[in-house]
């Protein structure tokens, strides 16, 4: 693989959109929840009642953040001031937590129907890192990250996982705070300057840069590379469309990892990154 910069000896990767092809499923689930809320609570300004955009709105408001923070940020952008409610609220539109629960139900329904897959280029990179003895960790604001990685067949390629459940247990703030990445580096036994971070979310790139990590790699999977400029602006040292670009030669032994669980892996027809 391409040599890591001097002093960088561990790698921390985001999960959704970097390891697993699940970001589009998250975007589709958010659209279902937000559009229901906009119908139930039409904003005073009709222009703010437009449907959730699974591309631009997803990247700006919810990508890389916790469910509650993402829901609150998007609703505020549309002029909706719902009560916070309780984390125990069921799926609905009356509170921010209810909207977040609606999204979670839609997302888990998608997983049960379609399964999930890992990006082949990321699988190849993880195997190359493992062969080279480079410690590897995954981070995610989602509480489903462990399940996603297991279903995609890549959990054994990672030494540690710091997900939404761990963040709640340890009371770690979400991105753009670097706490998730810092905890992953701690578990890998290296300080932030000795670790590289791989992220596709602007909030995550900003978190890695604020945390002083030794290398920040942005991933832009948009068809027209529309996000590359923003990823650089938020602090990415380099941006790739696929992590296989970090490998110097193809490896015939690295086959794509099929999804596990119910059904086959498929992308929601309307949710585009």
UniProtKB/TrEMBL annotation:
Gene3D superfamilies: HAD superfamily/HAD-like (3.40.50.1000), Putative phosphatase, domain 2 (1.10.150.240). It comes from the Bacteria. One of its GO terms (biological process) is DNA repair. InterPro entries: HAD-like_hydrolase_sf, HAD-like_sf, HAD-SF_hydro_IA, HAD_sf, PGP-like_dom2. GO terms for molecular function: phosphoglycolate phosphatase activity. Residues 250-273 are annotated as: Disordered. The keyword rRNA-binding does not apply. Keywords: Hydrolase. NCBIfam families: HAD-SF-IA-v3. This is HAD-IA family hydrolase. It comes from Streptomyces buecherae.
